[in-house]
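FAQ: What does a ligand-bound record look like?

Like this one, built around zinc ion:
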Amino acid sequence: MIKDRYFKHYLIPNFGREKQELLKDFKVLVVGAGGLGSSAIIYLATNGVGKIGIVDFDNVDITNLHRQILYSPSDLGKLKVEVAKEKIKNLNLDVNVEIFNFKLNKKNYDILENYDFIIDATDNIESKLLINDICIEHKKPFSYAGVNRFFSSTTTIIPGKSSCLRCIFKKIKKEHKDFGVFGTVPGITGIIQATEAIKFRTGVGELLTDRFLFIDLLNMKFRISKVNPDKNCMCRKN
Ligand SMILES: [Zn+2]
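The answer part, i.e. the structure of the complex:
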């Protein structure tokens, strides 16, 4: 067997070369190139996802560096999407990268159409709900995640098949307070999002649908809550 970059994948019985090949034409859009996005993007790229789209409007700031592992001190002030694109090229030349230097909104969301799976790596509830609603409308599977201090949560949503964010968050508080975030929390959570994307494409294992994972790194506890789709939710009416 040829020992290429993915050799250790070929040794996994229910993964193998056949599943690896499926990733070549898999297209994932990552919305937000911060802490979650950095970690998700790096693992999508090293694992051979054929096309990665990145949406972000921000520049690299000194306060990003403890968790946004795509960026180095020499990148300060540069556009995140451009640095990210360059970094992916260094990681894996086989990955095609498309960058969008804007904030996703109701006027530009048609970019989602060209992707198979969306990773919500944004840092605010308005963007998360927007991604939820667009993905439900366009039947795009996606991974949600949110981080806060030592804690994070994540779930995977397959429109038409699983519960959506609005089923889970019946009452939504739109708070903008910055609670801080511990450096490793978005790292582990973004890796879970990248794993869900790859599992979706390859069909291996069980996705984190209708289940909400809470991660508490302070006390090292991982808890999963079952979520039941809400019959009256907008996601059931599509
Ligand atoms: Zn719903």
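Follow-up question: can I read anything off the structure? Yes, for example: The chain is about 30% helix and 20% strand.
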